[in-house]
Design goal:
- By secondary structure, the chain is α/β, with parallel strands linked by helices.
- The protein has eleven helices and ten strands.
- α3 crosses α11, α4 packs parallel to α5 and α8 packs across α9.
């Protein structure tokens, strides 16, 4: 050890990679890096991977299935040991499935960061989106607010489908019929969310509560409510279905239902790296919680 210190020796990563057969590099593919959730998740994944001696390559999918399929083909050829997919888009298509199978056949493991319907993927670390939608909706219904509208993402989104299931379950449990519910596709961005919320507010029935699928959708809803002169939460209460740091910095502070992104990022990185290194993968349950702030605080 004295000689190591005197010579300022540090292990050669390239030589170690040749010996182990691994590059000690994993890739994180996110649906949209501009969204607060994905940037915060990337930070968490990177820190957890670094603690295990791995580097992280961050790739933005921009919700493109063609780009996803191309990356699933190219990244294994670049020596990446594993790939984490963090997107709410439905990716269980024959082309994507074939690309995942081909990547894993080359020794590059793939982990899903959000549940997919009928998926056979062994490596999955996903928030319980249905429970999150239920928790957010139940919170507003407990204040006897009705109607409550759900601003989802897009029709092709698995997350939107699961949030809608939780939303409907809460509404039905409270005695409301599915025909009286309000579900809109807001496109997972603030611009379309503002437009759809404005259209909702111009309708015959005014919602007393809004559940937004993510923070950008909530921001669009806040803008539309302000344009209509409707105060939050006195006239319309608002809950977003993800917990990011931005939520507490907004005015009014935004109530959220979601899981801890730091825990999710660490769980994703640990599960993938454990699998790469041939260790037993420990199942991690991500527990949703409600954080009540001013946007839905009862008077």
């Amino acid at each position: 050890m004295r000689a190591v210190q005197d010579l300022s020796y540090s292990p050669n990563a390239a030589a170690r990679s040749l010996r182990s057969g691994r590059s000690n590099t994993v890739a994180l593919l996110v649906g949209d890096i501009s969204q607060p959730f994905h940037s915060q998740l990337a930070k968490s994944v990177a820190h957890a991977a670094e603690d295990r001696g791995y580097s992280v390559l961050l790739c933005d999918l921009d919700h493109s299935m063609d780009r996803l399929q191309r990356l699933l083909t190219v990244l294994p050829l670049q020596g990446v040991d594993g790939i984490m997919l963090a997107t709410g888009d439905a990716i269980e298509t024959p082309g994507i499935r074939a690309a995942i199978d081909a990547a894993e056949a080359k020794g590059t493991l793939v982990l899903l960061g959000s549940a997919q319907p009928d998926s056979s993927m062994a490596l999955t670390v996903s928030p319980p989106f249905e429970e999150i939608g239920y928790l957010a909706t139940k919170h507003l219904l407990a204040q006897e607010r009705w109607p409550v509208a759900l601003l989802g993402g897009s029709k092709g989104s698995v997350i939107s489908t699961l949030l809608r299931a939780g939303y409907l379950r809460a509404c039905l449990e409270t005695g409301h019929s599915e025909g009286d519910t309000m579900v809109l596709d807001a496109g997972f961005n603030s611009t379309s969310a503002q437009r759809e919320t404005a259209r909702l507010l111009d309708g015959a029935t005014m919602p007393q509560g809004i559940v937004a699928a993510n923070i950008p959708i909530a921001l669009g809803a806040i803008s539309a409510l302000a344009d209509s002169g409707l105060s939050i939460p006195d006239m319309v209460a608002l809950v977003a279905c993800e917990e990011v740091q931005l939520a507490e910095q907004l005015r009014p502070g935004l109530t959220t239902a979601g899981t801890d992104i730091g825990v999710q990022g660490e769980a994703m990185a640990s599960a993938l790296i454990d699998a790469i290194e041939g260790q037993a993968v420990i199942a991690r349950t991500l527990v949703p919680h409600l954080t009540v702030r001013e946007s839905s605080a009862s008077s």
